[in-house]
Write a structure and sequence with these properties.
There is one protein chain. The chain has about 325 residues and is mainly alpha-helical. The chain has a single domain, classed as A middle domain of Talin 1 (Up-down Bundle), CATH 1.20.1420.30. Helix content is about 75%, strand content about 0%. It has 14 helices and no strands. Helix 1 packs antiparallel against helix 2 and helix 3 packs antiparallel against helix 4. The two termini are about 30 Å apart.
Length: about 325
Amino acid sequence: MVTNIGTLALGLGIILLSAELFTNGIEWLGRRLKLSEGAVGSILAAVGTALPETLVPIIAIGFGASKATEEIGVGAILGAPFMLGTLALFVTGVTALILALAGKRRATMMIDECVMKRDLKFFLLVYTFAIFAAFLRDHNLKLLVAAGLVMAYMTYAYKTITGGECVASGKLNPLTFDKRAVVPRIRIILLQVLCAVGGIIGGAEIFIHSMERIAETVNVSPFILSVIITPIATELPEKFNSIIWVSRGKDTLALGNITGAMVFQSSIIPAIGIAMTPWVLSNVALTCAAVALSSAAVVLLMILWKGYLRAYTLLSGGAFYALFLFLVIGGKV
């Protein structure tokens, strides 16, 4: 157990360092490509940091040979948007509030409301269709839904990149791999981003395997492990990236990283699950999806109602996360 905890800490450290490298590199990449903060956060950062949780279900479903590995794959697919829509938003809100109480920023999130509304609307739409597919009896119909999910994400990516928001501006910290360059070369930026992504994946793998061994010691079921425990590790890059960006006052990047990943994880990854498994969801799985959708809907409704987003609203994600744990651990579903 002590060895596993030590390995867990090692994986966490690698993820932390890699997340810092990634946020620095991705900001410079967005600047060189003349992209808006919404596109940088919702597309570049979201897809880049989604790699660890993307690999888990693909490996589990594609290379597994048992019912348990299929459960792990499906659980990881549903666990990613659940964790992002609840705990990741909660952690971001807590970070913003702590900084606000310290007098370093306001409690109101300094975001591009159009970016947030677009991301959350896409998430609610595509994830609802992904869950709806579980109720279809004909697998060919499910495959049509899977194709629709992929097309929906391509539409979202196009709208995000060509959305017309202002190009990201403001002073950036020097590129870590080339601190003396005023404007670093794009190949050095790409090298740093790729190294960071490799570190994130490697650190997440170390973290995941350590958590699995610890979970096995305390006798946790495969689905609960994959829907609750594994996503905590695989979503760490998004959480840490968002904490870093919130501390620097770059809230659109911070929240776009989370909501953009939510769109990716509720469309492309479920499409893989629908195509590669029977895609029949248990009551626990449906509850997990319902909680994620409800948490995202609360944030969207508050933005539509108020016209802005307060850090306090993001705390509701923690309440929804606690509700799910209560329902599962309490045996209510």
